[in-house]
Batch of 2 targets.
Target 1
Amino acid sequence: MKFNRILLKLSGEALMGEQQYGIDPLRLGEYASEIKEVVDAGKEVGIVIGGGNIYRGLQGAGEGMDRVQGDYMGMLATVINSMALQGALEKTGLKVKLLSTLTLRPMAEAMSRKIAIDYLKEGYVVVIAGGTGNPFFTTDTASALRAVEIEADVIMKGTRVDGIYTADPEKDPTATKYSEISFDEAYEKGLKIMDLTAFTLCKENSLPIYVFDMNTKGNLLKIVNGEHLGTIVK
Ligand code: UDP
């Protein structure tokens, strides 16, 4: 199965690389070149990044902070990551537009489905920052929402694991990988792929979720060109 328009979801934690916090410039550069390969191959790429390497609302709530205040701080963390990725992508020579749900003048334009699609068609990478713009949500849900809005063929969920397993492969050596799984089966088995809000949105809109190892060079391009490497939920 080939994909022409993708929504790439990266977690904030992935940007830490070997660090404990923040953004690893090496990792950022690696991701930028993976994405460039895909754009150079003529694919349209929208991107949503998390903020967990910097701040999570639940962490603030655990420390006594108001949850909503913490969630907005988390949304701002996604802005920082999005801007970092934008810079790294531009360095490779790609054309990039940063759109945001939160008002971020002068750094970003307001997210609008029409503007996002127009930019994608013009060959820009579109990075969508600020999550859904609402507290109590996650960037998983934001990526599902944006993927549906921009009519992406698939959500590419880049992780450090190469797909979905029967159990956590980092803890259980007998775990085996699914090549393909249905939404219903993944739900019944309680597999943690995305949070349930995101998962439901994808299921209701028949939007496949592709879980793959983003840290192996060339994987993203291979998959969009039709090679089957990770796990597809559909
Ligand atoms: N967040 C939010 N609404 C959204 C998206 C994100 O409130 O629509 C906040 C929430 O506090 C979350 C934080 O931003 O913990 C960072 O996002 P997320 O945890 O999804 O990042 P990731 O785990 O993917 O790095």
Target 2
Amino acid sequence: MKELIGPDLRHKGTKKFTPVSLASSLSFSVSFLLSVLIVAWLSYQTVEREVKAIFLEQLSMSLPRSVKMLKVWESDMKAKVQALTSTPEIQKHSLELRKAYDSSKGETGEVFNKEKLKALRSDLNSTLKNFGFLGFVLLDETGFSFAASEDAAMGHRKIVDRLGKRFIDLAILGNTIITLPFNSEVEILDRRGILRNDWPNLLIATPVLSLKGEFIGVLALRLRPETVFSHIFEIERTGKTGEIFAFNESGIIISKSRFEEQLKVMGLIPDKLETPSILNLSIRDPGVNLTKRGRIPPSSIEKPFTRMALSALAGENGYDLDGYRDYRGVKVVGAWAWLPEFGFGIASEMDYEEAFSFLNKLKIWFYILFSFLLAASTRALYMSWQREKAHASMMQAKEDAEKANAAKTEFLARMSHELRTPLNAILGFAQLLGMNNERNLSEVQKDNVEHVLKGGNHLLILVNDVLDLSRIEAGEFSVKMESLELGPLLDEALRLIKPLAENHEIKIECLAPKGNNLKVQGDHTRIVQVLINLLSNAIKYNREQGSVTISQEQKQEDRVRIRITDTGHGIPKENQSEIFEPFSRLNIDKGTVDGVGIGLSITQKLISLMGGAISLKSEVGKGSCFTIELLLAKP
Ligand code: ADP
């Protein structure tokens, strides 16, 4: 025999609440975000390093390639000029012109031998045009021009006034020299074929010697730098903003700027028709981004050279990938070199935005990702805080409800106990009164005593039920687990319920096999109590002339099912779980059938205390079937 103490039903269905605390969620979120931030930042740094290294290689490689092309062009030009000066006619005519000039010792156009000049011009002009030269000048050792393709270019020393005499001295020594671009000393044709003063040009100068090897003069061929010289730098341009340009030692651009049209709008070169950027643009930092701010504000203070120009003019080669402002004030990255062999510098630059647009996009994605994670973490934190708050108030409410329930249970237990004592006295004395014939009670008095006994018994059952329920809820109820034969239990319940059935004219039929020797585990009194509860309900809530059947079924090895089926009004689906709650009754029964609504809840609790279960199937209008499952005793 085993005695089971019932489970503490006050805590049925509750688990100890262990919420993830807000502090731990917060620290998790912060460390998660920090790790993402660090990993993303380190990855970005690596990508940035790689991208910059590749870009620097591209940038730096464009400079030597441009220099190489420059050298090819230079030797080609020199070869052409030298080929011209080795022509006997040219030597002859040059010598004659030189002699005419020497014998006159004058320096005016009048003394030139017009015949010879005409012959030289016709010898040279067609060749010059074919090679893209604008004209020629013959200079003596002092730089005096004693013959030229245009009259205006003769009879003065304007070229050496502009360029100095060094290139003449070098030419006399037998060298072929290409000068840097300078503004022409006479009118020359601009790129649209209009005669312009001070238009950029450059000279290719080589000595002219007589057949005997005497020095006659220096033949200088005139060329516009924006033709081939400038184009050489344009070949290596990349992207929308990449440009390569050359500049002289004064920091003035000597090749065409890619942004010529914008420069006029910005006020960096005169807004006159066809003003070239060559020789008109100083590589200085305007201090503001002129592509955004419009024109450069007039200022008497000269702006400083750009970062690139400062370094290159100091004779340095270098690069800057962090970005600096170029002559438009735009942030650019660049590489540069000073070319002593040419006497000028070259730079390769590109707008920072274009050069590292990939990195910028990556950065934007990184920011978007981070903001998203931040928002998601904040939301998760907020939700966790809300949950914690809700849980805390739920726990409080539960605690309050439990306290109130405990108080109610205690109150009911005390009250029931207190009621039972006087009630027993009333019943005892009423029974005595009814049994005592000596008192010669009249029929009316006997009837009254019957009423007292009936009402008192009913009240006692009710008080006992309430007491049972409160003890079960308080966890103070125990059941004695014994091995019991099922047949006698059913017989006992049927015997006890018979008067009620007869009273209600309800037929009871037991379909369980006679001589049933199945043994169940449970408390004798409580099993009978459960059967009587269910049978009395089946009778009470039956229709007139209805019936109740008891059947038995064994589907599992260790359990037996007992079914109590009635032909009553049935229980709607939506009320089927609620009728097991204490003090709940269906509206239809209130007022018509005696009861307080605790029978089923006690039944359910008793069954569960004995390790069994109860279930219900019901159809409105047809009847209900309550099934209890009991544990079978081990043989
Ligand atoms: P009581 O019978 O004292 O009202 P119970 O807890 O036994 O309390 O039953 C609760 C309610 O369930 C009843 O009031 C009744 O409305 C409904 N009920 C119980 N058994 C049946 C049944 N066999 N048929 C129809 N309704 C029932």
